[in-house]
Amino acid sequence: MSVLSALLRKELRLELRTFESVPGMVLFSVTIFVVFHFGLDRASVEGDLAAGILVVTLLFAGMLGLNRLYVADEEQGGFDGFLLAPVDRTWLFVAKATALFAYLVALEIVMVPAFAFLLLGPGLGQALPELLVVLALVNGGFAIIAALVGAIAVRTRARDLLGPLIALPLLVPVVIAGAELLQPLLREGGGGGLEAKWLAILGLYDLVFGLLSVAVFDPLLED
Amino acid sequence: MTTAIELDGLGRAYGERTALAGVTLSLPAGRTLVVFGPNGAGKSTLLRILATLLRPTTGTARVLGSELPREAWRVRGRIGLLGHDPLLYRELSARENLRYHARLHGVAPARVEALLDAVGLGLRADDPISTYSRGMVQRAAAARAVLHDPELLLLDEPRANLDPAAAEALEPLLAGTPDRPRTRVVTSHDPAGGLAEADVALGLRGGRPVLLAPAAEVTVAQVGALYR
Amino acid sequence: MYGKGLRGLSVATIITLVGAFALVFFYAPNDRDQGFIQKIFYLHVPMAIVALGGFVAGGLLAIQHLRTRDPKWDLRSYVAIHISIILAVGVLVTGSIWAKGSWGHWWLWDEPTLVSFLIVFLLYATYTPMRFAIEDRERQARYASVFAITAGAFVPLNFAAVRMAEAYTHPRVLSTTGGAMPGDMRLTFMVAIVGMILLFITLYRFELATKHARGRLRSLRRQLTGDDAPVPRRTAAPTI
To answer: What is the distance between the terminal CA atoms of chain B, rounded to a whole angstrom?
Structure first.
């Protein structure tokens, strides 16, 4: 556990020192909203269109985060330094997933209000608690897959391309479930509660891939 | 006296390319093995295997009583590595880097402070590594390597970026204490200096051992012949 | 060693496939609504089932590889995935033809099988480039195994999610009779599935035998020429 805290402190300290991930993700997402406005020629969106835009933007910003996640370790010998320590290597996965989760939360703190401001027709008020639950589960899925795929991609050539190419299909169920859950929330008079079956799918996805990643992560770090 | 390292036919192949093959030797605890050889001879490969960072593809290795790679987890905390890569994050300071490694190894923060002073980085400890000279980086890396007081120290050309004075200052840190000397494996391109500090000399060429003898029986010329 | 029984297997496969072909054209009934084009179902669905099985098998073989670190498991996983990718393309093509024939559109977002296979294909399409991007053979095999296990677990989950997404809005479009299959259809379908499974196994063992033979040839050549043997090109395929 102290290993996790040591890893996390290092991750967050590096991010705060270099600002390599979060500001880029924030700027990118706000720009995407502007692009969507022009691309769709809509001044305001709601319901399924709003849900789609929000989830897809979050997804693409998450891909930016994925690309940066292991770069410092790969380029500055962080892997070897960690591998030499007498600790369970799975903690690295947990730390990376937690860090990306934190970056996504930081992103959403800016991105969601920006979305409400720029594109969203109905207000967010009543739906806010449910929105947070959905985003938490979606962030979890993104973070788990990014932490796994990032480790695969970082030591290959064309890593910035391969990472998202592998991660995006894997994340389709998360996009489906996230959009389905957000749809009613982003409608006028939203906040009608969350559909159980999609919550179940999202929760199951996070659980299955969380456990699976923990099981297969070790062989990625050898040599 | 216990044996620190026992290798039998140790080798590492990458597909059809053999980086290392047929290394058999036995090194008692507290002794120093110096590995000579031109670039690409397999010195770094050998070191990485001993550091548990690389799995051998042939042969066996017993380090500090545990068989690699099966029991690598047992000895990881007792081995230190100082290679070409300082293994430090450039945007963090020396103190932050060392504290991070200390937490990973379960070492008290006080030791970090002691080592920072020992390598002469006390005043600049809070500046990012990216602002350090190469000599300072090497000293910080050396501090990282011995932070957890390892029984076995693996050194890949440790004096590469240091002036003679700094190298001198580092020596006691790397050597351990007289009553508990560290077992060391050092790679070197300096025949005279290397032999002077060695108990056993190993010469590699093309991944294979062509020279293996107590250092006292090896001449500088023999080491030089490896490079031709 | 790998070629044993291959001839018998090939013959059995050809017989079964020809038999299925005959049944499809001469025995199975014409669908009332969709007409003759519906018969592509006997190709499309068995391919889908076998491809899914192949992807999951690729994941299971990869687990064996990570457990034993024996490269032969990696080769088997690679071949299983390889063939399944080809079958997946077949699923997409036959599904598309079926859609065009029955509904007039080349693509149907409402058909969960088709959509799931598109996603699965997009995922596995990265398998070979990923392998190719890693030069070290042992690391390539290891990473490929992690990929195969993750993707293998993903396939059923993805299927369920996509199916659920379409369930309430659109019923299964490219289905037949929706429910129980009449006897003559079921027989044809069963034979088609058995034929497809046999085809997979035959192709699988054939490719393994070829790779094995090539590996033996290479190692013999190396033994004869010694250090003058040409350095092998980078490759995405595992070599024994």
So the answer is: 37
DSSP string, B28-66: ETT-EEEEE--TTSSHHHHHHHHTTSS--SEEEEEETTE
Neighbours of chain B (3+ CB pairs under 8 A): A, C
Residue C60: alpha-carbon gap to chain centroid: 14
pLDDT tens digits, C135-185: 888 899 999 999 999 999 999 889 888 887 766 544 455 555 555 667 777
Contact A222 B88 (CB under 8 A): no
pLDDT above 80: residue A202: yes
Closest partner residue to A156 among C119, C133, C162, by Cβ? C133
**Which tokens belong to B103?**
């937490």
Task: With CB atoms and an 8 Å threshold, state whether A208 touches C142.
Answer: no
Q: List phi, psi (to 5°) of A43.
A: -90, -30
**pLDDT above 90 coverage of chain B, percent:** 50
Residue C232 contacts B where some CB pair is shorter than 8 Å: yes
- Amino acid (one-letter) located at B52: T
> For B20-68, how does the pLDDT look when each residue is reduced to its tens digit (9 = 90+)?
999 999 999 989 999 999 888 889 999 999 999 988 989 999 999 899 8
Please give the tally of structural domains in chain C: 1
For the stretch A174-184, pLDDT in tens is 999 999 999 88
Q: What is the pLDDT along chain C (240 residues), one digit of tens a residue?
A: 567 778 888 888 888 888 888 888 777 777 666 677 777 888 888 999 999 999 999 999 999 999 998 989 999 999 999 999 999 999 999 988 888 888 788 888 877 888 889 999 999 999 999 999 888 888 999 999 999 999 999 998 898 888 877 665 444 555 555 556 677 778 888 888 999 999 999 999 999 999 888 888 888 887 888 766 666 677 788 876
Name every residue in A having a CB less than 8 A away from some CB of B: 2-3, 5-7, 9-10, 13-14, 17-18, 72, 76-78, 80-87, 222-223
* Residues in C touching B17 (Cβ below 8 Å): 231
Task: Tell whether C161 lies on the interface with A, counting CB pairs under 8 A.
Answer: yes
Q: Provide mean pLDDT across the span A150-159.
A: 88
For the B3-87+154-225 domain, the top CATH level (class) is alpha beta
| CB–CB contact B76 A86 (8 Å) | yes
Q: What is the largest CA-CA distance in chain B?
A: 50
B221–chain C nearest CA distance, Å: 28
Which of A14, A77, A87 lies closest to B91 in CB terms? A14
Q: Would C119 be classed as within a structural domain?
A: yes
Residues of B with CB under 8 A from a CB of C: 14-17, 57
pLDDT at B1: 59
Q: How many CB atoms lie within 10 A of CB C87?
A: 25
CA dihedral B79, B85, B86, B87 (to 10 degrees): -70
Q: Which of A3, A76, A85 sits opposite B89 (nearest CB)?
A: A76
Is C47 a domain residue? yes
For residues A6 and B80, the answer to whether their CB atoms sit within 8 Å is no
Residue B88 at interface with chain A, using a CB cutoff of 8 Å:
yes
Residues of chain A with C-beta less than 8 angstroms from the C-beta of B14: none
Q: What is the CATH number of the domain that holds C76?
A: 1.20.120
Range of the domain at C34: 9-172+180-228
Residue C234 lies in a domain: no
Q: Residue C230: what pLDDT? A: 65
